[in-house]
Amino acid sequence: MQPPKDIFCMEADELLDIIEQSILDIETGKLIPDAINNIFRAFHTIKGSAAMLGFQEISNFSHEVESLLEMARRGEIKSEVLTNDFSQIILSSKDHLRECLQCIKSDQKITIYCVLLVEIDKLKNDNVKNQHDTVSEKESSNCYYIELKPNKDIVKIGLDPVSVLKDLSKMGKCDVKVNTNSVPGLGDLNAIDLYIIWGITIQTPNDIDTVKQAFIFYEGMGAYDVKETNNTFNANCDMSDTGKPLQEDDTSVRGVIEEKALGASNKKVVDVKVSSLRLDTLVNLVGELVVNYTQLYKNIIKSKDVETCIVLEEHNRIIESLKESVLEIRMVPVSVVFNRFRRVIRDLNKELNKNVELLIEGEDTELDKTIVDKLYDPLLHLVRNSMDHGIEDNQNRKISDKSPNGKITLKAINEGSQIKIIIKDDGVGINYQYIRNNALKLGLIDQNSKLTNDELSDLIFKPGFSTKENLTQISGRGMGMSVVKEEIHDLRGTIALNSDHNRGTVITIRLPLTLSIIEGLLTVVDQRKYIFPMSSVRENINYSNSLEYNNKWELLDIRGDLIPHISLREIFKAKQLRNKDSQIVVVRIGNEKFGIEVDKIIGPYQTVIQPFNGLLKGINVFSGASIMGDGGVSLIINLMGILEYTQLKKYE
């Protein structure tokens, strides 16, 4: 079971993401009241959870932010401030809480920024709309009577109904009466059950909807009823002023309870947080089930037991359904990572003094959570490059007769067994002549090299290569794109770049739906089985001497297209370097094609991947292994590793 500290950090991280997205909604003018309420709930929850676990610094800080949010909820913050100073302070507070969570995770002391607290107090004091001028108006308040009946087990789950009374007291003057009629005798009394019922008369300038907002965290924890009353606050209001005291056997109250209690019948789906390690274990067990089924099926076929074969086929259908269900559990929408770039674009707009709009498409497309978790860093570098390298400043966009507002698009498309992610901008595009000149300076090509635009684009992914002349804090060091390519290939994906001068750049990333299952092409080399990732395979052809370009071993002529020739027999140091009936698997990595020679192509093959551990992790030409139906092991080819190995051998 996870420690409470870890659960708190995980849930707080999710709440901080909600805060960030809601603030960005406020800045764009979207559903401001709803967004403020979402932020208030998030900080309120963090405050309560932190206090319960003893993180008093976080609780106190969240309370200060919450008081500022309460003013915004009451409409006391000027509208022009909401989208400027207010949003910046909330974002800074969110960032600071994220740092506090890191301190908790690493068992370090939590330190609260006093400067941030001063800014919060200053905003509260400077931007109240005529607060002191409307005191006399507030004297003519509304009066409400509230009946509050918490569930008996509310204390057991760590909630305190008194917090509702405290929130109500902040809205105005309260007179609280307690009904103890439901408290049983000592013999039947359970010390951790709550039996009392409250009747509250409140005099407040707020309307009834604002008063009900005090119960936003109480929903589902009991019953409450808010009614307007003509009684003045000074009248001797008790629980009988507006009706009978709440009783367990009161049918009218029971109707209120059934109506108000949240989740009594309409909550049919409950989300459960499960460690990804447990899901990995489950996937591995399903893989072993598939292997055992195949072995059992072969034995049954040999015995010619028809009835058992029929039962076994049904068993196989259940295993396949189980495998699909387990994989679906691991899938999450790419919006989890895409939405984080709203903040990135916002901050870079201010830093670079640009006006760039982020467009997100296909955010409901689902990917394996392991891939989504590792996708942010490479996408971050690409988006920052688009902002810094691609999108022009306002003056240059005007000269180019473009809209002053640039656009960056993040788009996800499901293509069956893989996902295509597109990062597109409408900027200046790539200067291919500059790339060629820079490549000559770095010695990556010689003066006689004739490269296509696709081949020049691939040079951008070389270590140390940059398309920007001047170094900035954002980009220009020439290391990022090579790291991006490595990270994408680690996810068994490919990346390609295309650009039109003065029209923009499009970067296309293709990734498998999951890292647990591979859609592969099963082949044989020197009597051993190897699997190619099907997403990179373009075609298969039979080998013949006529394919060799000018009788040279290194190049193949595929319908006039010259591609490098790689022999796995040579790489794996087989006794014989050639097989008379060998075949060629044509694969594509980015914009590059290669012909890889194998002895035999068996065909498509779907299997569960077993990652390497220990010493085997350093073998770069393989990305994992798979247990075959006969109990044997087939290795999964890492195409990028094969390419790098052959290039190293070439220069030895």
What does it look like?
With 652 residues, this protein is an alpha+beta fold. The chain has five domains: 4-129, Four Helix Bundle (Hemerythrin (Met), subunit A); 136-260, Alpha-Beta Plaits; 276-329; 333-512, Heat Shock Protein 90, CATH 3.30.565; 517-651, SH3 type barrels (Roll). It is 42% helix and 23% strand. It has 20 helices and 22 strands. A hairpin with a 2-residue loop joins strand 16 and strand 17 (561-567). Helix 3 (56-73) runs parallel beside helix 5, helix 4 runs antiparallel to helix 5 (114-126) and helix 16 (432-442) crosses helix 17 (453-459). The relative contact order is 0.06.
Structural category is: alpha+beta
Major beta sheet, specifics? 6 strands, mixed
**Could you say what the CATH architecture of the largest domain is?**
2-Layer Sandwich
Helix content: 40-55%
Instruction: Please identify which CATH superfamily of the largest domain we are dealing with.
Output: Histidine kinase-like ATPase, C-terminal domain
Structural domain count? 5
Which ranges are low-confidence, i.e. pLDDT below 50, for 5 or more consecutive residues?
132-140, 233-267
Beta-strand residue percentage: 15-25%
**What is the CA-CA span between the terminal residues?**
53 Å
Mean pLDDT: 80
| CATH level 3 topology of the largest domain | Heat Shock Protein 90
Please report the number of helical segments.
20
Number of strands: 22
Strand order of the largest sheet: 14-18-19-17-16-15
Which word captures the global form?
Answer: flat
- Report Rg: 33 Å
Oligomeric state of the chains in view? single chain
